[in-house]
Amino acid sequence: MIYSEISSNKRKTALLITFFLVLIIALGYFFGQYFDSPGILPIAVIFSVGLSLTSYFYSDKIILSMSHAKQIQRADDPELYHTVENLAIAAGLPTPKIYLIDDTAPNAFATGRDPKHAVVCITTGLRSKLTKPELEGVIAHELSHVGNYDIRLSTIIVVLVGVVSLLSNWMLRASFFGGRRRNNEGEAGVIFMVVGLVLAILSPIAATLIQLAISRKREYLADASGALLTRYPEGLASALKKIAADTEPLEEANNATAHLYIVNPFKQNLNVRQAGSALSRLFDTHPPIQERIKRLEEMEK
Prior knowledge:
The chain is 66% helix and 7% strand. The chain has helices at residues 2-34, 40-66, 78-91, 124-129, 132-147, 150-176, 187-230, 233-245, 270-274, 278-281, 289-299, and strands at 69-72, 97-101, 108-112, 118-123. It has a 4-stranded mixed sheet, sandwiched between helices. Helix 5 crosses helix 8, helix 7 packs across helix 8 (233-245) and helix 7 crosses helix 11. The longest helix has 44 residues, at 187-230.
């Protein structure tokens, strides 16, 4: 059942990324026609690829710096290092670098561009409040993000969302300030204008919803993979219960990094979101934690 869920989520994720790229190309095409400048399309694609490559190589350093995380060595916490090292060996992965955020709110995330350049980052609150089986469950969840290449996917999606927002904003501003050329007037020009404006307005919203949908699917996949790695789903389920019960928000988190954490770091919204409507849950960075716990507990049966 677990392998089936992993394969299904990977296929859906690939389809969503393809849709993202088509969205950028559509934006470039319609505004290229509207402004009678076919060069806009290749510029839009090159711009998005360039930013993706920059993010690919440097996003992990930026994220860790934003989170005020500090790297630790084996001598700093032998037990934690040993836990990560053993689980990485069991998963067939290189031991990732371990970073610590000095914050009493329990939480964790993984980042990097591939298993050889991966980082597992936890808070001091997570380290002190979880039991060993719970800590192993969380570390296994984060290593699953590494092994499933979720860390690379997350980085690329974040950048593509930014690119779509930037392109849409630029094209809307250019439209308002009359950037259209005279030789593109007439019925065809009006059609390109209407389609382009609708795309520019709706694309950032659609891009954000897609990003959040991918983030939610990644959490289910990592939960399943982590449970498979430790062969003890109850450990991760218990950790999620404990993290969810802790109401302290994570001060070092922000809107750009919130989706990376194992649980939404803005705890003040957590209970409200669990009880919210299907529409409000579209904007959640994580799936309902009770549903995640339920799925893990069902794996025990």
